[in-house]
């Protein structure tokens, strides 16, 4: 497809994705019906877009069954208050510091099972987090091994909405959304400067 053809397809797709799914092909046919090659390409791209994962959807295809409730359990100085989320490698819990010195909230990541490859990966991730120091990256606060031999780490907990939901709720204009993206890019760049590459950015 040449540059002019791509410009036509791109313009039509921009309109099509804003329509209900049942109306999209009608628009493509009306705009590109006289150019079968461009129409076919536009349909293929639209099908790919609508069948793809959402931008912030996890890349993990299999998430193990929900673990038993750990509410009230202790991990070092931390007590579990509830489950925050689960992924293919582990679960993340809302925790509070209960060792009596001061109040603090955190997110505690605990690995599923005891597979050796996961243990090595988890420990490497913990070491990487310990080296990172940037306002856009959650800080590592603590870590250890539980009674069952599973490694855990407690990280700074950031309460709030995912950035896309926050922007939508606040009706953030385009310039503000771009600024948020630039903030995220700067955090990633800081990790890159420390030779850390994240292969599952959301």
Model description:
The longest helix has 20 residues. The chain starts with a helix and ends in a 9-residue tail after the last helix. It contains 6 helices and 6 strands; from the N terminus they run αααββββαββαα. β5 and β6 form a beta hairpin. By secondary structure, it is of the alpha+beta class. Strands 1-2-3-4-6-5 form a 6-stranded antiparallel beta sheet, with helices on one face. α1 packs antiparallel against α2, α1 crosses α3 and α2 runs antiparallel to α3. Helices cover 42% and strands 19% of the residues.
Radius of gyration: 23 Å
How much of the sequence lies in strands comes to 15-25%
For the largest beta sheet, what order do the strands appear in spatially?
1-2-3-4-6-5
Spatial separation of the terminal alpha carbons = 30 Å
| Sheet of most strands | 6 strands, antiparallel
Overall, the morphology is: elongated
Question: What descriptors fit this protein?
Answer:
six-stranded antiparallel beta sheet, 202 residues, alpha+beta, single chain, 6 strands, elongated, 19% strand
Put the structure in a nutshell.
By secondary structure, this protein is of the alpha+beta class. It is built from six helices and six strands.
């Amino acid at each position: 497809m040449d540059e002019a053809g791509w410009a036509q397809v791109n313009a039509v797709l921009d309109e099509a994705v804003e329509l209900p799914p049942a109306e999209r092909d009608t628009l493509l046919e009306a705009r590109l019906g006289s150019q079968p090659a461009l129409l076919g390409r536009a349909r293929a791209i639209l099908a790919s877009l609508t069948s793809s994962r959402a931008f912030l959807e996890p890349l993990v295809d299999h998430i193990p069954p929900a673990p038993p409730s750990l509410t009230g359990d202790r991990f070092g100085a931390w007590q579990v208050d509830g489950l925050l989320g689960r992924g293919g490698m582990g679960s993340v819990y809302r925790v509070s510091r209960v060792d009596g010195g001061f109040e603090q909230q955190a997110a505690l990541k605990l690995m599923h099972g005891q597979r050796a490859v996961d243990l090595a990966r988890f420990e490497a991730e913990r070491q990487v987090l310990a080296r990172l120091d940037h306002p856009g990256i959650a800080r590592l606060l603590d870590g250890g091994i539980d009674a069952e031999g599973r490694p855990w780490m407690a990280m700074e907990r950031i309460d709030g909405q995912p950035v896309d939901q926050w922007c939508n709720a606040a009706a953030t204009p385009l310039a503000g959304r771009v600024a948020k993206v630039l903030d995220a890019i700067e955090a990633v760049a800081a990790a890159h400067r420390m030779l850390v590459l994240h292969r599952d950015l959301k």
